[in-house]
Amino acid sequence: MQTATTGKKQIVLTVGNSMMGDDGAGPLLAERLRHQPVSGWEVMEGGAMPEDCLHLIRTAMPERVVVVDAADIGETAGTVRIIDPDTIADMFMVSTHSLPLSFLIDELKTFVPEVVFVGIQPAIVAFSFPLTEMVEEAVSAVYTKLSDWQGADSFEHC
DSSP for 119-135? Predict the structure, then answer.
């Protein structure tokens, strides 16, 4: 899918496990993008093993990848932040994934011109808990921003 304004391919790579409470933020965003696509964006659901999507992303040759996941950034539940890829390894991230997200981001940066990591502060990450209202609202905020994406300036940084 090409963007109307730039003609460049953009991918949202969602990460998370919908059976783990607020770690389901990424899967919820993927579901919403599948049912209500945003012009200019493709969605890939990475689940708990987003590194399995690397070959698909490499084949797609996008200009931009936005990775969305629950992240313990020490903020109020539902807070959305752009997390600098260089600091991901230093932060405690909600870890329901097989490999550290820093590996994924570093690998994406080798062949994607722009990689942005969007973290959503979870309230609870535990098996069989539902997504909280705060995180559902945060997912809606990310979804809304995609139609007028301003890159790393779309949300505050941490």
Answer: EE--S---TTPPPPHHH
